[in-house]
Amino acid sequence: MFDKVDLSVSSYDTAWVAMVPSPNSHQDPCFPECLNWVLDNQLHDGSWGLSHRHPLLIKDTLSSTLACILALKKWGVGEEQLHKGLDFIESNFHAANDENQQTPIGFNILFPSMLKYAKDYNLNLRIRQAELVSMLHKRDSELKIDLGRNSEEFRTYLAYLSEGIGNLQRWETVMKYQRKNGSLFNSPSTTAAALLHLPNSSCLNYLHSILKKYGNAVPTVYPLDIYARLCMVDSLERLGIDKYFKEEIRSVLDETYRFWLQEEEDIFLDITTCAMAFRLLRLTGYDVSSEPLTQLFEDHFSDSTGGYLKNTGVALELYKASQIIIHPNESALEKQKSWLTHLLKEQLSNGVMQADRFNRVISQEVDDALKFPFCANLDRLENRRYIEHYNVDCTRILKTSYRSKNLGNEDFLNLAVEDFNLCQSIHQEELKQLERWVVENRLDKLKFARQKLHYCYFSAAAALFSPELSEARITWAKNSLLTTVVDDFFDIGGSKDELLNLMQLLEKWEVNVGFDCCSEHVDIIFSALRNTIIVVGEKAYRWQTRNVTNHLIEIWLDLLKSMFLEAEWVRSKSVPTLDEYMTNGYVSFALGPIVLSTLYFIGPKLSEDIVGSCEYNKLFKLMSSCGRLLNDIQGFEREAKEGKLNAVMLRIIERNGATTEEDVIGELKVEIEDTRRELLRSVLQRNGSVIPRDCKDLFWKMSKVLHLFYMKNDGFSSQHEMVGAVRSVIQEPIILK
To answer: How far apart are CA 142 and CA 161, in angstroms?
Structure first.
């Protein structure tokens, strides 16, 4: 599947290739095999095009059929097929002006032009003169407007549609778009149109090379290998089954990176391929600059008010790429993201995509991409959405429609559904195990504490869903629940004596629980902490082949001390500086026991040197600082009423009230964005990194969890905000309709 890119042949393009005369005699076709293919491949209704076509693709079929008729008429063959084709066009001509029909790229120029060619050939098309005049007027108006524009995007667009421009085209200018393989835009029809107007051996060799591969017909675009393989990689990742194809994916990305470094035309002359390559390569850790992408965007997209480059699918791919900002100097990528966000929102709101039944999948993808930005898009939630909207048919449209088994694969879909439901059944059993653990450790007796087991486990399962990561999920969920309990104990449930007692017990470790605990609450919490640390330490030893229990105790002690300091600030009504608050606050946000403990179960061995490295501590601080600020922005009003410290309030105090709450929140959002980008840059960095990539990914996964929970409000504290997400990952299996 990865070795071979499968493309359907195109009646439209094959017909244009069939029209090319022989260099030796203009009375004979240069490619008689294409003409024979047209003769042999008319459909039963008189049309040419894809079999089993979608009912909204009549315009596409009209265009393909008329091109085939012109080829037959030019060479004076196929009288019977020609008349059947004319009958089809006459019977379905109304669709040419139907706005509900899917419109191929350039249809409003190409189809009327072919009608004019048909008239020049004295083909008797029995269509209403008013309809014909209307279409020709529409074409001439569009051409007049477009030819008057002085932008590279429109020059490129009209060059791509050269067969519809005919004698009006400046063919010498068009040839500047010729690629190294001899083609114009990798389009057989555009390349054939050039040969109808001027001799060019490179164009001729390009068409010969396609027919050598495909026999007697051509696809609508060739080659498509890089794009098709990247689409497969993207689909496998979004379906959640990339783990089964690691070697194949690595091979594709290595090859794509080589092409990137070589400035391969099939990447850098195609904006969609460039955007996808940039996103997939950068997220895998390859060192790729955003400059080629942003330059393509500036040249061909940002000033677009029409034309094929404003296609929604292209805009969506560019939008997804523009979110992968990791360097401070990528303002052009930031500008691109802002512009595309506005464009996609506009296209959604004006109802164009919703009204287009053929493109309902892309409409849903745009909606999802805007609702769940990359920084808040949890793997398993995206997997489910993509599975449920996966288009097996996956018909794509350029000047004409085409299909590829590489772009829509039913076997991939079936594997993804099976894998999702299998993982979900494992998750359900793990959740039952955790529910028993809560009761066994009496945590349900702590009435002051938020009962958030389902949320805690959901965040683990959504980020670490593979069956082999069971210990990681259990460790994440247990520590997540315990940090919630301890946080509530330090905030509202415990006295100062109890808090000190809990810290002292953890420091001593070897204690008599029944005698040394000053209250039942301390007894329950310390016992649960101690038992969990012991169990996690024992299991981690089997993964790491070294004792990490002392490190686990240290992580918890750091958390308790930071929480105690915050509690003391509140009790004494002390007001720390914002720097003092954040230095303590990134620890008190309580991600240490969750993420740092779970790291021991991801797979790679982590030595003491790695755990003590600057890189390790930097990743933890960046992740936790993001979380702290996200929490403070969403919880500001509630925490202000409760008398708790908060970054928003402290910045206002530092400025003596000379700034508004809204301005401060805006500033903190910028800080979050900068910190998040630095975190992602650190995760993706290869040179000089001592932490295995799988382990670094955990910091980023937690960051995405935090951005999802705090996207609208404090989703973790809410009773209802995340219920639907929890059900979709843990409780409801996927059943394809």
So the answer is: 12
Q: Give the position of tokens 């008329």.
A: 66
Cβ-based neighbours of 208, under 8 Å, separated by 6 or more: none
211-261 pLDDT tens trace: 999 999 999 999 999 999 999 999 999 999 999 999 999 999 999 999 999
End-to-end CA distance of the chain: 26
| Helix runs in 223-308, H state only | 225-239, 246-261, 265-268, 271-284, 291-300
Exposure class string for 652-691: b at 16+ Cβ within 10 A, else e: beeeeeeeeeeebbeebeeebeebbbbbbebbbbeeeeeb
- What the block records as the tokens of 704 is 């995405």
Three-state secondary-structure class, residue 178: strand
DSSP state of 49: S
Q: What residue has token string 């997997």? A: 383
Residue with tokens 């402290």: 650
Rounded CA gap, 734 and 388, in Å?
8
Cβ atoms of 63 and 107 closer than 8 Å: yes
Produce one character per residue of 407-446: b if its CB has 16 or more CB atoms within 10 Å, e if not: bbbeebbebbbebbeebbebbeebbeebeebbeebebeeb
Helix (H) or strand (E) holding 401: strand 401-402
CA 76 to chain centre: 50
Going by C-beta distance under 8 Å and a sequence separation of 6 or more, which residues neighbour residue 250?
Answer: none
| 205: Cβ contacts below 8 Å, ≥ 6 apart | 182
pTM above 0.85, yes or no: yes
Block residue for tokens 């772009």: 407
User: Are the CB atoms for 498 and 519 separated by under 8 Å?
Assistant: yes
